[in-house]
Design goal:
The N terminus is likely disordered. The chain has one domain: Immunoglobulin-like. By secondary structure, it is mostly beta strands.
């Protein structure tokens, strides 16, 4: 009886963990590369941070209907053996009026700087959200030379 109860509790706990784990944007294909520049007339802000030898600036443009455009710049300012990268966090709606209820995360493709002490940043591609998107934030990260994120600052900007 005791084993059965413990087994049921373990199964329930595993289900809760799986259900609350944030979805990865890598598997959901939330963004498309575009040649379009920053959209004129859209609301916008620039998320900036400098931490752990990584400086990042991410331009975020949006409209009330959920259209979002993003571009990042990143500089490697340290000889720590890591590359500099940018990660974004956001929420999507796959059906009208229904938000996912969890965060999606992804590195901003193209924003990877592995050359310490260059004065010019590495720019990402320009990205448009495939789905209505909201609450986009960015943060500075360390990555390996393949662009895989190793660690990020704790604060979102």
């Amino acid at each position: 009886m005791k084993r059965r109860v413990l087994g049921l509790l373990a199964a329930a706990f595993s289900t809760v963990l799986i259900a609350t784990t944030p979805a990865s944007a890598h598997s959901t294909n939330d963004w498309v590369k575009t040649t379009q520049g920053a959209p004129a007339g859209w609301a916008h802000r620039t998320a900036k941070s400098y931490v752990g030898g990584v400086q990042q600036e991410t331009d975020i443009y949006w409209q009330d209907n959920g259209e979002v455009w993003v571009q990042s710049r990143v500089w490697d300012r340290s000889t720590d053996g890591y590359c500099a990268a940018v990660q974004i966090r956001y929420e999507i709606s796959e059906s009208p009026g229904k938000w996912a209820g969890h965060w999606h995360y992804r590195p901003v493709g193209g924003a990877l700087d592995c050359a310490f002490a260059e004065s010019i940043p590495q720019y990402s591609a320009n990205w448009m959200a495939r789905y209505p998107t909201r609450k986009v934030a960015a943060r500075a990260c360390h990555a390996n030379s393949k662009g895989q994120i190793v660690e990020c600052e704790g604060t979102w900007h």
